[in-house]
Amino acid sequence: MPEVNVGNASSFSDPGRKVFEVSGQEVGVFLLAGEFYAWENRCPHLDGPACQGRLLALATEAVNEDRTSRGREFSKEHMNIICPWHGMEFDIRTGRHPTNQAIRLRKVPLRVERGEIYVTLRGA
User: Fold this and answer.
1) pTM of the entire structure?
2) DSSP string, 21-65
């Protein structure tokens, strides 16, 4: 499993992402709240380019004590990647779908050393 330098950490905005192709594998690297995360750019639904989709805060329904709706609220802690093919959402930090925890993106090992980002590719 080769480790590859994909660039300088300071080149990322927060929140932000870059998608890299290395040896035929696409990897999405994300920066969120000062932490880096890396995922294979393959949606588990139909292999769409999940890491290239929109970044959007998790939306939840705000409910009053009498169980009436106040409308949508957007999380300040959870940011999702939305696959551009069919709208599947995945938490940037965990790679998991927000309602079906069995569906998730495949994690790519990542480390940051001396300001450089390294990912470990799967069996290339």
Assistant:
1) 0.83
2) EETTEEEEEEEETTEEEEEES--TTT---GGGSEEEEEEEEEE-T
